[in-house]
Structure formats: structure tokens, C-alpha cells
Structure prediction request, 438 residues.
Amino acid sequence: MLTTLTEENYLKAIYHISQTSKKGVSTNAIAKKIDAKASSVTDMLKKLADKNLITYIKYKGVNLTEKGRLTAVDIIRKHRLWEVFLVDKLNFSWDEVHDVAEQLEHIKSPKLINELDALLDFPTHDPHGDPIPDKNGQIQRTDKIVLSQASVGETYTCVGVIDSSSDFLKYLDKHQIGLGSKIHVIEKEDFDQSMSLEINSKTIVMSKSITNNLFVKKL
Amino acid sequence: MLTTLTEENYLKAIYHISQTSKKGVSTNAIAKKIDAKASSVTDMLKKLADKNLITYIKYKGVNLTEKGRLTAVDIIRKHRLWEVFLVDKLNFSWDEVHDVAEQLEHIKSPKLINELDALLDFPTHDPHGDPIPDKNGQIQRTDKIVLSQASVGETYTCVGVIDSSSDFLKYLDKHQIGLGSKIHVIEKEDFDQSMSLEINSKTIVMSKSITNNLFVKKL
DNA sequence: ATATATTTTTAGACAAGTCTAAAAATTATC
DNA sequence: GATAATTTTTAGACTTGTCTAAAAATATAT
Prediction:
């Protein structure tokens, strides 16, 4: 039973939301992510439940079935592989890839994606540091933390971003921060939780809204 | 005003049909190519005419406007560039590329297609020998002829195929015929117009239905 | 040139996915 | 625990692209 583009987008949205909150995913949360009305979401949830892609109990939110999870992860695999392709082979910068990858992720051809994987030398992470699921839907878990939770005095490597909006990525580019950048935490301000950091031998102060969007790993 | 995937497929069909018959394109011909009913075609023609992509006079068939032609040719450019990508970079054979390219041709991103063009080193022809339109919609005209019209005693190079169905391409592969193959016309049978040809130092007899599908150029 | 056959268009219906407005269920508040 | 606020679902309608069946226009044949 093949999935439509719209169904795939719903599954992806449900998957992403369920990553950040362990309980069932609410209709409103999906509506917000998809940019649709809650009534439209309800309609689609019925359809996805009919196809055994989610478990759906009225008024109780939804969860992906194993079939649904595999479908969602497969789309994410394709999305991230295409992002690597765009950056590594077509000279896109990391803030330009998202919209195009959103289109490319829906192309249906197993051979295409396997060959692309090989062409790119089987990458494990996309240009924003997110792990690329393997063919079987396995995702490598990392021990990354959010920069805002880093400890004063320690040094970290930047391994990913949460918000991959163009504006945020451009901010990082401006300060020459990218995946692999070394970040030393000098001080953490109790009042507003802003942080003083040493990056590229320069001291930089970041507000909580910035440090909440960067993933780092202890060196 | 952006075009939908369906509109693009209609424009492409109209373009291709208009290449093989100089007069206006009929509703039935489009229906056949698109694999839809004539009534559906009529509906779409009204929409395309409203968007100034075709000129449409009831019962009289259609023609592409300049805007429509440019849109169609742009899709064809993308289709053929993707085909080159699939064969050159992803190890597809020339009989496997069509369906995937049909999907990829609708991806909307000027940067994507320009960079792809560069990655592939600005190819002029796709894997079936068809010319790739340039950015401005210009198509290089070639002096190719159909093999069935070739002259006895002359030698030709294979430069393209008409029918790029998987079956036909596999037939060619089996006889080790590809773009660039040398074909010497030994004899032409008056009765059924089959031809005796020397290819790869072997003599091979081809029926008219085969020779009608191969483009050649005099050496 | 009239009758027949073919092509094309119209009219009305359907499926997918969306919306608004209103009703029902759940959650929060006092 | 009753009432208010929020969330979710239902009901009905709209759009895109499709279909079938019937009507209209064009082309063909005698």
C-alpha cells in the first residue's frame, strides 16, 4: 500500500513531534507543524489509522505503528541523504538545503537512494549534524546535549543544530560556527542564562535562545 | 504563476506530440499520451488556456504559446539532465532511468538544476541521444535520420532512439548496440523493408519496427 | 448532400485534501 | 463537582483532477 506525499508529510510530522515528548501526539501539535487546521488533521488521522500507520483513539492523540515509524524514518533518511548530496556535490550551503530536500525526499526509487548513499560514501550525518537512519530504519543515538546545559569550564564540539532555519544558520556562519567547531564555556549568567563562550579564539556571548538550538558533545 | 505537476505533464505531452505533427494537437492524441479520458483533457485544456500556456479553440486542437513552450522545454531539460545524472553518477542503465526522471523533473529549484548541469559537465545529450535544451529553451537541432530511411552501402553512427521503452533498450543492449555504434547498411528488403546491417563485425537483420526506432547520422 | 461515424465538449458525479462553523469531549478552575 | 476554557471531532462545502454518459460539432461515406 503506497503512501501519498501528504500522508508522508503527516507521518514525518508525527515522528518529529513524538521525538520531543514521550506521550501521544496531539491533533493541535500536528496542525501547527503541518500548518493546517485541526479539522483537516483529524480527517487525515482517520485515513492513516485505516492504513495501519498510526494508532489513533479519538480525543487521545496518536502514536506511530512500527509500519508508520519505518515509513517516517525512510522519508527522513531520504531527506538527509539529499541534503548531503546538495552540500557535498552541488555547492549548496547548509542553510539552503531544506526546501529542496523537502521535495526530493518524496521521490520513489529504492535504487536511486541506495546509489545516492554509495555516491556520497555512506554518510552518517546530514549537514546539520542529524544522524542518517540506515536502510533498516535504525538511527544512531548520540550522546549530544544542548549547549545551554553545558558545564562552565568544559570544552565541547558542536555536533548539530535544532532549529535549521536559514536565519539561525546564517547567524552561525557569521560567527564562523559550524559542525566540529570547538566551544569552551567560560561563564554562565544566572539571570538570563546567557553564556560566555570561547570560539575560534574569540569570546562571544550567546543568549539562551541561541544556546538552546545548538547540540554539543563533550570533548 | 506556478504550474502544477499535472499541468506540467500536459504541457510536456502537447510539446512532444507537436514535434511529430505540424498541425494543432488533438484532444484525443493528448488523452492517449497522458492515459486519460478525452473529457478530462478538455477540462485541463481550458485551464491551460486560462493561464496563457496554450492557444485553444474548441474542436480545433491546441498549440503551445511561447510561455507554454518554454515551460515544457524546461521540464524536458530537467528530465534529460536527471537521466544523465542517473546513468553517469548512479550506475543506472539507459533502460532504467525514465520513470525516476519523470518524478525528478518536477522538482522546483533553479539552483539545483544549474548545479546539476555543472556537476555533469554541461552535457548536450541524454543517455538516449536526445538533445538537452539550454537554460534559454534553445534546442540543438541535429541532422539525424531514422535508420529505416538510411541508404544501402552507407555507414552511420547510432545517435538516438525514439522508443525508449525498457524492452526496446534491452533489445539493443543484447545486440550490443548503443549510442556511437557504427552501422553499415548491407541490404534493404523491398518486401517487408527489413534491413541487413553490419554492426560490431556481425551481420544482423532488423525488421522495420526496429529500424523505425533508431536515429542515425551519416559518418 | 444527407446519413453515418468519429471526435470533442458538456453535465453531473466522485475522491483527496482542505476549509469554516458548530457540536462534543476533555481538561482546568473555582 | 459544576462551570468555564480548551481541544478535538463532525458536518457541510470547496478545489483539483478525474470519470461516465450524453449531447454537440466535425469529418467521412455513399
Q: What stands out?
A: The helical segments of chain A are 5-20, 27-34, 38-50, 66-90, 97-104, 110-119, 166-174, 208-211. Chain A has a mean pLDDT of 94. The longest strand of chain A covers residues 155-161. The interface with chain B takes residues 86, 89-92, 96, 99-100, 103-104, 107-109, 111-112, 115-116, 119 of chain A (CB under 8 Å).
